[in-house]
Amino acid sequence: MKAIEFVPVSESILPSDHAMYNPEVKDYDCDVDKAEELLVDLGYDQVNEDGIRYNEAGKELVFTIFIRGCTVRIAEILKEQLAEAGIGLEVQSAESQTHDGRLRNNEYELAIHSGGGWGGDPDYLRGRFMTPADDEEYVDTQSLGYENQELNQLLEEQRLELDEEMRQEIIFEIQEILAEDVPEIPLYHPAGYTAYRPDKYDGWMFMFAHHSLTHLKLSYLERGG
Fold first, then answer.
1. Which CATH number goes with the domain that contains 191?
2. Is the overall model pTM greater than 0.85, yes or no?
3. Which of 48, 106, 186, 200 is the most exposed place for a label (fewest CB within 10 A)?
4. Average pLDDT, the chain
């Protein structure tokens, strides 16, 4: 039997129980009053009968969020929470292939997607946030549109650094930049819990980079004593 817990996360991207998580990274509290203040400063100082803010030109503050079918409930929760600040959200759902294609082509206003990585080596941050050179292909196609040259340099440095302590210092600095720039907003990380009968099978192996024991096929191989 397996259960999944959804754990809130900070803007560091790495989960709080990661070996290279930076506990000093900037975090952002939920502050609806501050959000409303910022929106008024942007000119959205009027609210219609549906509670949606609009500006002097009559433009309503409504965004379309593009999702896979499995994240409908998450989108509904976001819609409810954003409505508290007068922001409207229209939800569009599609199957995975269409969803990923539109992400690659930047055909969306807002989108929910799974970043992956969990507790794996933090080099996966390079795939998601580094701006590739013209001759490079190593980039996560679901995170295009963000560019920070300082971050690019640090992501490359951590890849080549052999001293673990020095590499961790670089990873800490990377998390600070990501928390400041907020190229994406992490919502949660999954944490898996598995219950089993050891008298039936007790050969599970833990995989640091994934939350599910059953995903590691080494668990099913016969091992010598």
1. 3.10.105.10
2. no
3. 200
4. 84
